[in-house]
Design brief:
alpha/beta, three-stranded antiparallel sheet, 13 helices, 13% strand, Aspartate Aminotransferase, domain 2, Aspartate Aminotransferase, domain 1, binds 4'-deoxy-4'-aminopyridoxal-5'-phosphate, seven-stranded mixed sheet, 372 residues, single chain, 2 domains
Length: 372
């Protein structure tokens, strides 16, 4: 047996994926983290055309200039961020962007503040770069919204970075403008990096999304096409940051990936240039499902915050065996503790499944668990 590197040994494979492998194939899956919609037709056409045109060679490391120009316009329009194509890097999903951030900036002795609970990859990428985690609770009494005052208490001389994720996976929480601004101000005063994962920015209901990069220069803004355009398998994302930060990030990207896939880049250009009505329709449908699932869970006595974004709810469910009981009854969910210790006593349910299936899943829980 060849010994793995200590940092590789310090993390484990995702338990969530493992769980899907063992459960019954007829169960209704409320565990998934991807839209149940297909890639819009105009994007598919752009990708097919790119192959027909033999556009299958390397692109610039940072990505096609046409795509980076569209991304610059998008940042201006949606996020009030002024950037330029030289300070944009097209990545293999937001996942690669996260990995680049930690590899480029975090090392042994550094602490990274992470929301508790938060997306599983955050802890893994920090540990893979040798850093330590400093957890900050997202409290249910605050509807799981991360508060600047709680973050401030965690800052110390070793604080290198914080990862923000609004709207959040796994809670669906959307941070308040004043907290985002206050954390942005702190990053300038105390000299630490904000890695802002904005992948769910468009999946937001009756609320405005704010980017910390509007108020601080110490921010790397990450985004991608997986959620807004249902392009998960096409593995395409992007980031922007100031010139100095970008140069370091590019080193990791260049030697690891060279460039994101040509076909996906062509699809991404069309996604940004083309009509946005597919994304708008998807969000309207997600809202309808959110209302259904939050209503049904609260009626059953599982206290559930009316999450303002993403496609997850995070009900309070104290029964430790709930996830396995629900799986046996035919509904797959994910234990909240998988996302950090503060997720204990909660279950993540994704509503990236049809309205009918969600309704059916709630009937099953009501019959077999609540009344069972
Ligand atoms: N960030 C968050 C919060 C996510 O939920 C996900 C996907 N589940 C990602 C990043 C990764 O997205 P991508 O497909 O762009 O790598």
């Amino acid at each position: 047996m060849i010994n793995p590197a200590t940092r590789t040994k310090s993390i484990e494979l995702s338990q969530i994926r493992k769980m899907f492998e063992v459960t019954n194939p007829n169960a209704i899956n409320l565990g998934i983290g991807e839209p149940d919609f297909n890639v819009p037709e105009n994007i598919k056409k752009a990708m097919t055309e790119s192959i027909d045109e033999n556009d299958t060679h390397y692109t610039p490391n940072k990505g096609y200039i046409e795509l980076r120009e569209e991304i610059v316009k998008k940042f201006k329009k949606d996020n009030d961020i002024n950037t330029n194509p030289e300070n944009v890097i097209v990545t293999v999903g937001a996942s690669e962007a996260l990995y680049m951030c930690s590899q480029a900036f975090v090392e042994k002795g550094d602490e990274v503040i992470l929301p508790n609970p938060s997306f599983l990859s955050y802890e893994a990428v920090v540990k893979l770069s040798g850093g330590d985690i400093n957890w900050v609770d997202c409290k249910m009494e605050n509807e799981f919204k991360l508060k600047a005052s709680d973050v401030e208490e965690k800052i110390n001389k070793n604080t290198k970075a914080i990862i923000l994720n609004s709207p959040s996976n796994p809670t669906g929480a959307v941070m308040e403008k004043e907290d985002i601004k206050a954390i942005a101000d702190l990053s300038m005063d105390k000299d630490f990096l904000i890695i802002s994962d904005e992948i769910y920015e468009k999946i937001i209901y009756d609320k405005k999304h704010y980017s910390p990069a509007k108020w601080s220069d110490n921010v790397i803004t990450l985004n991608g096409f997986s959620k807004t355009y249902a392009m998960t398998g096409l593995r395409i994302g992007y980031l922007t940051a100031n010139e100095d930060l970008c140069e370091e990030l590019l080193k990791i990207h260049q030697y690891n990936i060279a460039c994101a896939t040509t076909t996906s880049q062509r699809g991404a250009i069309e996604a940004l240039r083309g009509p946005q009505d597919s994304a708008d329709k998807m969000v309207a449908e997600f809202k309808r499902r959110r209302d259904l699932i939050v209503g049904r869970l609260n009626e059953m006595g599982y206290e559930t915050v009316n999450a303002e974004g993403a496609f997850y709810v995070f009900p309070k469910i104290d029964d430790e065996d709930f996830v396995s009981k629900a799986a046996n009854a035919g509904v797959i969910t994910v234990p909240g503790a998988a996302f950090g210790s503060n997720g204990k006593g909660h279950v993540r349910m994704s509503y990236a499944n049809s309205y009918e299936n969600i309704d059916k899943a709630m009937d099953i829980l009501e019959e077999k668990i609540v009344n069972g």
